[in-house]
Structures are given as C-alpha cells and as structure tokens.
Design goal:
Blueprint lengths: L2 E4 L2 E4 L2 E4 L2 E4 L11 E2 L6 H4 L7 E5 L7 E2 L4 H9 L8 E4 L15 E5 L5 H13 L3 E5 L1 H5 L1 H8 L3 E4 L6 H10 L5 E3 L15
Parallel strand pairs: 6-8, 6-9, 9-10, 10-11, 11-12
Antiparallel strand pairs: 1-2, 3-4, 5-7
Length: about 200
C-alpha cells in the first residue's frame, strides 16, 4: 500500500491483478503536467514478511524516469499467475525506480523480461541477482530469440520461451526445489484458456 496523490488530494491507491495480488500504486504529479508519476517503496520493511521465497518481477532500464509511460503487461500477467503461497510478487519497473539489489535475498526468484533495447541492463540485473544467491529467470522477446545470451551473459538459471502464463508456477516450484531447468517452453496460451472478461 503506497501513498497516492490524485488531483492534489492525498489518498491510497492499489491496483489488483488477481484477487490476492496487489502490485502497484501511483500518484499524479500536476507540476510536471505529465501522465502518472509512480512513487514505489521497495524497502524490506515495506515488502513484508518473507515466505518460502519472494518473487521479484523486473522490467530493466538503465534510466529511471519516475514517470509511467509504458509499463509492460507481462509484469501483471506473471504477478497474477504466481501462486498465493509465494506471497505478493514484488514488481520493479526500472523506468520508474531502480532496483535495490539489497532487497534480494538468497533463494528469491528474480524474473527478468528483456527486449533488445534493455537486454544489457537485464543481464546486469540477472548477474546481481545470482550474486545475491537468488534464482535468475529470463523471458521476453530477446530471451526467446537468444536464450544462450541470457545464460552466457546474464547468469541465467532458466529461460522461459513463449508465453509464461501457464508455465510460471512450474518455474517457481522448480526454483523452490533448487532445480530450475535451463529452458522452459511456455508455448502459446490458447484462446479457450483465457478467462472471459466483461467490459462496461
């Protein structure tokens, strides 16, 4: 739960991805005249009690603008696909606020989504995660095309190719057992497997 400022009134705002998965809060900063500015508290005190392992989902970026422009959908998809027993996933969009590696503990899982433009930073994040004793798991377009780079340059424990929605819980279970696979094939999620959504 974070402090949010909307139209100059202070309030607390939480966006839920799944029924038990709070992942983001925001405030608008009128003085900038720009969209939404996020204030994220990733201190250990704010992250709460540690369960069997914590799950970090990271959108890497070399520069933190502090302004929400295009936060990737996959962060919320995997947050919603994370079994409740692992607690609330910790989303870190580095375009908003840089990752503090000190928050990562041994045994945590760090999911990193990379495309070509942020691949180098993503691999740096993976190396930091592995150095801290966490599991580094990659996905995204670049990791799909060049999974060997994630292993060779990013110290990956595993790479998910294809959609992560359904295979993610298996990845987490393997990490918890200490036996992540080098490559997971998430395939494509069929339309029949998608939950219906009602608009309006």
């Amino acid at each position: 739960m974070f402090l949010a400022r909307v139209n100059d009134h202070v309030s607390t705002v939480t966006l839920y991805v799944a029924s038990d998965c709070a992942v983001f809060c925001y405030h608008r900063q009128p003085t900038l005249g720009l969209g939404i500015v996020f204030q994220v508290d990733h201190t250990k005190a704010a992250l709460g009690e540690k369960g069997p392992m914590r799950v970090f989902l990271i959108n890497p970026s070399d520069i933190a603008f502090g302004i929400g422009v295009i936060t990737p959908r996959w962060l919320f998809v995997l947050a919603g696909a994370t079994p409740a027993r692992y607690g609330v996933p910790i989303i870190v969009d580095e375009t908003l606020a840089a990752l503090d590696p000190a928050n990562i503990d041994p045994g945590d899982v760090v999911g990193i989504g990379i495309h070509t433009a942020n691949a180098l930073r993503g691999m740096e994040v993976g190396r930091l995660a592995r150095k801290r004793g966490a599991w580094a798991i990659y996905g995204g377009v670049h990791a799909n095309l060049h999974p060997q780079e994630a292993h060779e340059l990013g110290c990956a424990h595993g790479v998910v190719k294809g959609d992560g929605d359904q295979v993610w819980k298996r990845v987490l279970a393997d990490c918890e057992k200490g036996d992540p696979q080098p490559l997971y094939d998430g395939g494509r999620v069929a339309g029949d497997d998608l939950s219906g959504r009602r608009l309006g």
